Amino acid sequence: MIPGPTGGYYVQGTADGSRPGSYHVSIQGQWRTKYTLQTIVYHETIPGHHFQIALAQTLDLPSFRNHLNFNAYAEGWALYAERLAWEIGLYDENPYGNIGRLEFELLRAARLVADTGIHAMGWERRQAQLYMDMTMGLPGQYSHEVDRYIVMPAQATGYKIGMIKMLELRQRAEDALGDQFDLREFHNVILGHGSMPLEILDNVVQDYIDAKLNSG
Question: What's the number of domains the chain is made of?
Fold first, then answer.
């Protein structure tokens, strides 16, 4: 963890291990509120980006699969990790932190709409900002992110689509495997092949389900 004037983001380590991955956090009153910090940590570190990316760097795979990050996969996992942290009880002693998690879940849904509005529906910048203010109920706190969506088409959309896909795949595996389903094993399948497009991830999970059923 590296404190500084800005923060809330992760920088992956070097391929040769000479520099470790690092989480940068603001200690000077950046706009992020205290009750959201727990969720940001889970998103950026463990079980989120750091866990996924550092693990990928150690896999015996072609180098592009160790180090290339597909947005929907990488950010989808980080959003999934936020939810997973809640599911396994990491917010049980911090209800305000869970409110922060829910606020961020709403934010990611709102960003998807703003991103789509700008690039598919022809929204003007101010229209997208007003939508963010209205949806989040926090005027000015998140609307500045609209500039990010303008210059990075579909980046915000990829977050939520990736998360939804991973939840869909988990439900598919649970339904198909029943008592044979093991959440840790499922996560090994999701993370154990490096970053990939969601279509390929779907195939990987289906292959795992089929192999598990055939072995039984």
Answer: 1
Q: Are 35 and 24 in contact (CB under 8 A)?
A: no
Residue type, 102: L
124 vs 210: CA distance, rounded Å: 47
pLDDT band at 106 (very low <50, low <70, confident <90, very high): very high
What is the span of the domain harbouring residue 51?
2-215
For 33, residues 6+ apart whose C-beta sits below 8 A from its C-beta are 100
What is the per-residue pLDDT across 64-88, written as a single tens digit (0 to 9) for each? 888 888 999 999 999 999 999 999 9
User: How sure is the predictor about 5, in pLDDT bands with cuts at 50, 70 and 90?
Assistant: low
CA distance 101 to 22: 22
DSSP conformational letter for 28: S
